[in-house]
Design brief:
17% strand, 44% helix
Length: 489
Amino acid sequence: MNILIIGNGFDLSHYLPTKYDHFMDVMKAIEEKDLGQPIKNIFDTSVDDLTTLLIKIQQFQYAFTEKTYQMNFDELFAECRDKWFIDKTKEIYITDSIKLSFEQIIKIQHQLKKNDWYQYFDNHVREVKSWIDFEIKISEALKVIASFLIQLENKIDEFGSFSTEICFYGQKEPKQLFLTREYCNILELFKILKSGYYIDEDCQDELGRFYTQNHDVGDEETDGDFRFYIREKYIILHSGFLKIKVGQILDEIYTSLDEFIKIFNHYLEITVSKLQPKDQLRIDAKDWIYPEKIYSFNYTNTYQRFYDAIEVDYLHGSFGENQNIVLGISELEHENLIKLKAYGFTKYHQKIFKDTDYLFLNDCKDKIENHKLKIENLEKDFDSSDSLGKRFARQNLMEVESKLNITFYIWGHSLDISDKDYIIDLFSLNDDMDRNVRVTVYYFDKNAKFSLLNNLLAILGKEKVETWMKKNWLKFEKNPRIMMSDSIS
């Protein structure tokens, strides 16, 4: 049996724009699309509801023509950093059907403006080069948020309250949190903190008691101090004591991540899914055998669209109208995240919650367990008086029934530690004996091969990798070429 395991590199081999850079560059192009000053003025107001926004915009639609405010493939990818790749996409695919309407642009601009995770990634765009880096940045943001929340709870335990002003330089007050300016900036992107130039004023209540109240004065020219404060909506005042709405903060951050996933799903729908090859594609590789099953770490249905509608298990979900895309971190490695039970941000929680095909190689594992049970039962009954037939049965059990006879082809998966559980499962199939499981890992270039081998060594260890290589159970080969009938490659 031949099984193909694919990652994002499979789509990239087909020159489909599924890289993190492609997605962010297109979103930036949409975000910066100039729809005229009247529309900009509406966006600059505090309109949160999309329906209300569209109603307000309708009064200005007479000033626009559909043609002027559409975006086609060239406009969407005009500022893409991967220009050579996009040129190849245009060479291979028909792009005429990719066109955003005025209303679609408005909707996406509204989503991007409101989404905290998009604003966070846009703010760190140069630090993120791949989907692996993307996961790392999610983890970093969650650690900052968790540290902030745990520190606040510690202040509440110690003092029964806390200061709503954050100290980011100098000496802090006992009830005050100290956070670096970088941490404050991240928390502000997620709308947990607000910043501004403030002055303090002495005030007196109805009972004649004096208290100090701060006022945002707008800018530094009015002699205000630049400060960060916790937003009032997350603070509970009860019997004179302050508490923080931890659950609400985590719920809103998870909801924002879910909305970000919807934005990404929409990107795949309006771009990648609409690309149709100009001619029939074929896979050109030495000894290539078309698979009988696919395990996909992608969200797209590329193989089924271009080659054959065979069985595909989408381990991280799939895109579309009923998308169940899994996009998060591998583990809650930081103790503060564990304390807060922030499991909704993990892939394994999302996979179970979203009902993805999260079972991997279960048929193989079941066969191995059944085979081991047969051996145990045979050994119990086997003795010197056993017949020749039983001896042949034992030989058949050990030499024939033990075999899984599977060749795995891994194409476009990074073999990164974020998917270590799958990798460990795969390379455990020959642990107790040679069950005729063979693995071919495809690589793009020498640098990619170097990284793939590094990742395997980090996950499996030197001894296992060397064993698989020496026994020729594991081999590395160059990526197959994607060809067209007119020889475009």
